[in-house]
Amino acid sequence: MTKMIPSPLRSTVARTTLLVGLTTALAAPLQASEDLPRGYYYLPEEGDLVGEVYTIEAEKEDTLIDIGHEHGIGYRAMVRANPDVSVWYPGEGTEVTIPGQFILPDVPRNDIVINVAEMRLYYYPPAEDGEPRIVQTYPLGVGRQDWETPLGNTTITQMVRNPAWYPPASIRREHAEAGDPLPSVVPAGPDNPLGTRKMRLGIPGYLIHGTNKPEGVGMRVSHGCVRMLPEDVETLFDQVSVGTQVRIINESFKLGWSDGTLYVQAYPYLDEKQGTTIQRVTEALDEVDASTEGLDYAVDYSRLREVVEVPGGMPVALETPPEPEPAPRFYEQLQLIAATDDADEDEASQG
Q: In the chain, fewer beta carbons within 10 Å around the N or the C end?
């Protein structure tokens, strides 16, 4: 697959023109992490962005889900970034956008951070003395609306390879009512919904685990547990231990700086109870104003409004570029044309 370089995001409009439409664009790459595995990024010394948005060409046998998994992106994120591309048959040669740039969540950059709003996990491993710090990030499946993933700070309390699954009574009852009864125990193997790795959390009844249905990663499909792609959960499992801190947040609106530019990244609310669109816009305005207070920074408020109203899940620059120089007045343009014609005639006579 061929990688293409994205173009910078920019726009113009003052805060009073909040109804101006959003021009879709891709954020410029801000990290040089080609020497790291997929999903690994060097932490910026200053700033909050990692990764890049880029495009590839689909191959004949690809699905949008397969492409996303290859690049560490879940289902919903791929669909949002490619609304006109078929999920099951993108088509050979079709350009597919990979939304692989992220504003790091506004929490301490230590251990595991799970942001259920973006269905993504961030792991900040400790670094050896003198070595640069990195962040690893992975797509997740999270709890359905009636089985929401809980929020809060906890730890890993148990780690099991190739676990058996003992379905809770509530889940067995749900399946029985749907005509799909479950056994009291599902042994390790290809039919086990926990996959090959299980990490129990200090919140009773909740896990980080693998899955035997990777197509659900990037969706709200679980009974509250956090699902990871099989290869991702095995990679994470080998790096953490009992006692590793886990912070679970629901941050649907993120702000971050990079090279003096303020970026915003927004995701759909998981629940309508979180607020109305007007509330979202108001809260976003307040957060942006707080981030730029005391700075000589021109914010593109129309772009901000569009990002909040139609959250696409990709970082968008909020900087208004300088106003273009005014065009010469009409008579000045005529004088310029006349002067150019005279110069041409002189040159011709000399030739």
A: C
